[in-house]
Amino acid sequence: MRDKYLAKHNAVFDQLDLVTYEEVIRLPEFRRKTLVLLGAHGVGRRHIKNTLITSQPKHFAYPIPHTTRLPKKDEENGKNYYFVTHEEMMRDIANNEYLEYGTHDDAMYGTKLETIRNINRQSLMGVLDVEPQALKVLRTAEFAPYVVFIAAPDLSQIKGVNDESLERLLKESELLQQAYGHYFDLVIINNDIEETIRDLQHAIERVSLESQWVPVSWVY
């Protein structure tokens, strides 16, 4: 989805401002409900998400987006997209039912919170590659996210990228770490996709077997 915009006018976003300090509490081991991949645009989050879901469909899933565009030939509602009217989508946005939404080619696209809940009900872990501001909604006991920052790879590992794009990638990655680093559960440098997937899988397994520090708001 291009031209992605967060639901900036949601009352939820006004109520849950990101802060640099929060009280935490230690809980016994438990399984996180969602995997949130953060990172600069172009760092490879979508590829990581798709590879992870394809390799382990019984453990991970991606929330199917909603769109106002018309179905293409042979497209099934609920397979790659949920097709809704513009009026339906605007109503649901006004009711704070979308995590993110945006426009592309005069059509709207968005991720509904209920699609994430449906994944959790199936005992699967939802995988989200979202903008960092989405943490304002996701960092709750309901979604219990494991937040992974995909850092820009080493300069020697980047091929076929011009200097301007590389500079933007590295700068955006640095700014994201400065602004949101205190929310990261794990930082992975995406030098090799297979290694990245292994590291992610091991980290998720390990965290479910250890006691964890989480925001007090997840408990009280």
UniProtKB/TrEMBL annotation:
<protein>
    <recommendedName>
        <fullName>Guanylate kinase-like domain-containing protein</fullName>
    </recommendedName>
</protein>
<dbReference type="InterPro" id="IPR008145">
    <property type="entry name" value="GK/Ca_channel_bsu"/>
</dbReference>
<dbReference type="InterPro" id="IPR008144">
    <property type="entry name" value="Guanylate_kin-like_dom"/>
</dbReference>
<keyword id="KW-0728">SH3 domain</keyword>
<dbReference type="Pfam" id="PF00625">
    <property type="entry name" value="Guanylate_kin"/>
</dbReference>
<dbReference type="InterPro" id="IPR020590">
    <property type="entry name" value="Guanylate_kinase_CS"/>
</dbReference>
<comment type="similarity">
    <text>Belongs to the MAGUK family.</text>
</comment>
<dbReference type="InterPro" id="IPR050716">
    <property type="entry name" value="MAGUK"/>
</dbReference>
<dbReference type="InterPro" id="IPR027417">
    <property type="entry name" value="P-loop_NTPase"/>
</dbReference>
<feature type="domain" description="Guanylate kinase-like">
    <location>
        <begin position="32"/>
        <end position="205"/>
    </location>
</feature>
